[in-house]
Amino acid sequence: MHVAYLILLVSFLIFFASYLVFAIGRFPGTRIDRPAMAVIGGALMFAFGVLTPEQGIKSIDFSTLVLLFSMMLIVSSLHLAGFFTWITALAAERLKPGMLLPAIIFTSGLLSAILVNDVVCLVMAPLVLRLCRRMGRRPALYLLALATSSNIGSVATITGNPQNILIGSLSKIPYNQFLARLGPVAVIGLFLDWAILGWFLRRAGAEVSPHVSSPAIEHPKFRWLFVPMSVTALVLVGFLLGYPPALVASAGGAILLMRRSVDPRKIYDNIDWALLMFFVGLFLILGGAEQAGITDRLLDLASRFDLHRPAIFTLMVSGLSNVVSNVPAVILLKNVVARFADPKTAWLMLAMASTLAGNLTITGSVANIIVIEQARVDVPIGFLDYLKIGVPVTLATLAVGLVWLIYFPVF
Fold this sequence. Notes:
Blueprint: H1 2-24, H2 34-47, H3 53-59, H4 62-81, H5 83-94, H6 100-114, H7 117-135, H8 140-154, H9 162-171, H10 175-204, H11 222-240, H12 245-257, H13 264-268, H14 273-292, H15 294-302, H16 310-324, H17 326-337, H18 343-356, H19 366-374, H20 383-407
Helix pairs in contact: 1-2, 1-14, 2-14, 3-14, 4-9, 4-11, 4-12, 5-7, 6-7, 6-8, 6-10, 7-8, 7-19, 8-10, 8-19, 9-17, 9-18, 10-20, 11-12, 14-17, 16-17, 16-18, 17-18, 18-20
């Protein structure tokens, strides 16, 4: 009996220490960040006997990891081939300065729906800075447009962001159905993002100088682009035809690794290994929490808040996603969703709220942090600067998502 209580106490401490780090970003007095804490927490679940090796393996959703890793391979290959530079060069040549804002919003939104939004932001942030210099525009609002639109666009598909990849794997909702339900939310959200940021842009004034010198953006050679773009297109077709996303994406990633023209190690250099380890650690922490009965206690507590009401559930998911980040929030709530009367709609509500709530603050999503950090030297954007944009964008898009899922059912 004493051993059982000791294991329960240890699992509670590991669980809450881990989620504390997920909330504040770093363990006090150390350099332990979120991914490191996830790995440490998972290892401690084994070390103290909360999890056996067999239970640990069962707690990991390998389909999620395979899909996430494979999409990173595809995006990395596109990046190395110059796909994102090509898009930027086309924009620099053909866009008028007044159309730069919608071009960034809809390009980022579309790419984030097809690919993983975090990686899209990583490669596009420097390119947006270059475009702004060439066109004589102050870059701050355009960078915010990149971050917010990448989050909004990513809500449309299973492969749009890490939490959707996880939800797609757990819910077994087909890619087509996910797109049919949340695609319209993304499209409407992108137009709202354009309207809100356009209003701020008109108030702030966008022009710096009519003549800003900047090096020309070179077009990559088409032969470099052909294979990765063709593979990406075939992978998207596979998704739309209803094949398992992890299987289709892994086949695409494998084909791209087999090319003789590209060293696979260069592709690996662009993989977010920390995010993959973060997922593994999270699965183990939640697996240990389930074995110790912690999640059952949390489910009993959650049942008191009437989470079956869509508005309350959306509000709770949004708040939790901004406290502990969206991926830990989704993993924490997965057992709650499974108990809903209509779990399919609840999964979609969880995907919608956890993604769109990421626009509320800088720390609301990894994509936001990536954009802010990429531009920090040239364009420092403070917490309050972001909040002025994040609050109206988040409230408007969450309202659209909530109304759409409640009143416009498709299946």
